[in-house]
Design a protein that fits this description.
Number of strands: 0
Number of helices: 8
Order of helices and strands: HHHHHHHH
Number of domains: 1
Shape: globular
Radius of gyration: 16 Å
Oligomer: single chain
Distance between the termini: 42 Å
Length: 207
Amino acid sequence: MEALVQSQVMYFASLIGGIAFSLSGFLVGAKKDLDWMGLFILAFLTANGGGILRDILTDRPPVVLLSNEPFLIALAVTLLGSVLKLKRYTAVENQWLFVICDAIGLVAFAITGALVGLAIHAPFFGFITLAFLTAAGGAILRDILVNNIPEVLHSGFYGSIAILVALAIYLLNMAGILTPLSLLGAFTGGVLLRMAAYHYRWKLPKS
């Protein structure tokens, strides 16, 4: 995939993931009855925490230091969420709105992490690690801040989705068919798989 096209795909994936994860962070903060500053911080870190970890590991300036867009997205989500009174979604983990937002953010950021891995020619396990951290890092920070057990530690198909999406992109690239259309297919498949895992309560075995 050409560098310009890859850059555009990364931008749109980051934009979609940023909006979705900002909303999921807002909803978690709403359940904890945080004030507006707390809601903004949670929305911002959920959307950008994984990307910051990814950029630090790959020796790149974090995007949040180069653009106002991440701050504006988190601020807009916080203001709109408050105006629309989304705080009424108290049982947030059981609401489809939260699950859908979280699934979209998870898969979108898995894609951006995978594309960064391809750009720096990371070896296989480094590639998977970048995709996983980009996808799940923000949610981990979100849950730690509100004293929840990170979902990736007890919901087997949460982190697994990010790994499967990254694996699909790796194989598409190896086969020479990594295109915006195939990435859209990977995105759609990842979101649907996450929703199916939630609906049917799929989990990995426990010891």
